[in-house]
Amino acid sequence: MLLGLRRLQGSRAADVAAVVGLAGLVPFVRVAVVDLIVGVRAADRAEMDALSEQYDDIPGALYWEAGPLLFQIGLFALLVLLAVGRRVPAWSPVALVLGFAALMADLDLLPLGALLFGVALGPVVRTPRRVSAASTRTG
What we know:
The protein is mainly α and 139 residues long. It has helices spanning 2-9, 12-41, 45-56, 61-84, 91-105, 110-126, 133-136.
């Protein structure tokens, strides 16, 4: 997704945003997977907190803590660049931020966050891709 958005924008700023987002992709997915595992294993909130601490004791803790933010910043920057270039509506990056905010506020808002991600990224699906000169040649 990040690379696809980068290709749609095709600028140096989009390259930087994609690299930042990719740097945070693995920690972002790790947080989601750990939250799911802890949620399934725990009987109550106290047990969730205790189980979460077991997953936090890993080398490179700063990267694993700050990494998800890199993914969010990279994805947001790409959508802003696309909005500035009028490739997506101006509300698209706003919907993305609201989706991330919903997830950070409470995991019970996961369906709302997912809906907002769909709203934010939906216009990208409908954005026509650039056609290269080589693909338009016949013969």
